[in-house]
Amino acid sequence: MKMKCFKIDRIDKVTYAEDYSMVVIAEDKIHAERCARLESRDFKKAKLKVTEINMDIEQVALVANTGA
User: Fold this and answer.
1) Cβ neighbourhood burial of 40 (10 Å; 0-12, 13-18, 19+)
2) pLDDT value, residue 66
């Protein structure tokens, strides 16, 4: 099984010091979303956008927390 890279973003309202974006390595979008929800309590019940990152081209997936 070939693993893929996904960027998971919260699309609901984010408050100070909450997680809002992460990169997950998983076999598909469903598993990536599940991993994100299990990893962060801020993602647990949030509305999420899952985007597959194309690993065949050079690019940057900037993920930052502007909180505490």
Assistant:
1) middle
2) 62
The torsion angle over the Cα atoms of residues 34, 38, 42 and 45, rounded to 10 degrees, is 50
Q: Please, where are the H alpha helices in 6-51?
A: 29-39
Mean pLDDT of the chain: 90
CB 13 within 8 A of CB 64: no
Q: Report how far residue 39's alpha carbon sits from residue 18's, in angstroms, rounded to the nearest whole number.
A: 13
| Contact (CB, 8 A) for 28 and 4 | yes
Q: In the numeric block, which tokens belong to residue 57?
A: 């081209």
- Of the CA atoms within 13 Å of residue 50, those in its CB half-sphere come to 19
- Whole-number pLDDT of residue 15: 84
